[in-house]
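Data availability excerpt. The first of two example chains:
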Amino acid sequence: MNIDAIRHQTVTCSCGHKFCFKCGEEAHGPALCEQVKEWNKKAMDESETNNWITANTQNCPKCDSAIEKNGGCNHMTCKHCGHDYCWMCRKDWKGHNDFYNCARFEKKTKKSAKSVKGKKSKLDKDLQLALEKQEHRMRLERYLHYYNQFMQHEKLALSNAKLREEIQRKVFEWKENDGTMAEIRFIEKALSVLQESRRALKWAYVRLYFYDDKNIRKNLFEFVKDDLDTSASQLHDYLHAAPFRKVEIVDVTRLCETRLSNLLTSSQDLDG
């Protein structure tokens, strides 16, 4: 039994599908079952949609209609009532001097620091609102980073299935020309290792998402992940090439196996 099966209770169906015996999901090492459950729930519910709305919209100070900001100048014009105002300070745009960086926001920050403790003012509320929106935006950007990487490797895993079909045609032609089974076993091995590597890389981003960015052990994990990603891409290119370069494919397959094992091992250090 390999290291993935031991740590994540991965089992293989007679059809070749690998899944986690503990939670029933697809094989997901190095991510933990609890993280997979939370990740899938996060992708299905509306929490991130609400984060996006909070970070990128606000109500018009005049008519209270929701307005979206999609980048660029802080000068906002309400489509409903035509009111012009500043996105940052929410004051009238008339007489506003800075088109891209609201100087008034900085002044508010300094003034707020000098305010009497416990005193509530409109200034404090505006500042708090801006800080909350910034926090929502940062949380959303962090999630989207890992989600986009997850989906990228999901697509690569699907492309691996197409690669298998393409190679099977090549193998058939090879056998028709008196090729032996021994000569093509290394290709099946390479395809299998590539598939496992792509799957592990995909779930590695879920593993990373649920850990604090300040966790210094994440640096090693990401370094090992990048190594595996490099080897997997190289193996993919070799399998696409024609004719097959057996020595290179065998060598990179072994390298992928080693780095895959390293990734699964280093993920355990994140719990320490």
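And the second chain:
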Amino acid sequence: FAEWKSDQSAQNQTLINALSRLVKKAAPEFTTTVKWGQGCWLFRDAPKIYIHTEPDHVQFGFYAGAKLKDPEGLLAGNGKFVRHVKVFTTRRIARKALVAFVEQVRSR
């Protein structure tokens, strides 16, 4: 994960660090790895959360995102399972909502 992160832009590394702290606080038992070219958090070897990077933002995604409660309508995507939130700056991180998503995937 650290090596993957080091290959990202400085802006995205800042976003990844902020999101990593959020996951660490909400789900300290999750471990980091790289799967399918993306930064990923696992629980008991099952992928739960990912970060996909783009030049101007990161996608903070959930493998079971289609099943998550999303009262604020933050999750994007229309696949059968995966949903994500686009994060452009650390100021625009919807921390409370993202923590709620992490807690939901933690209990699945």
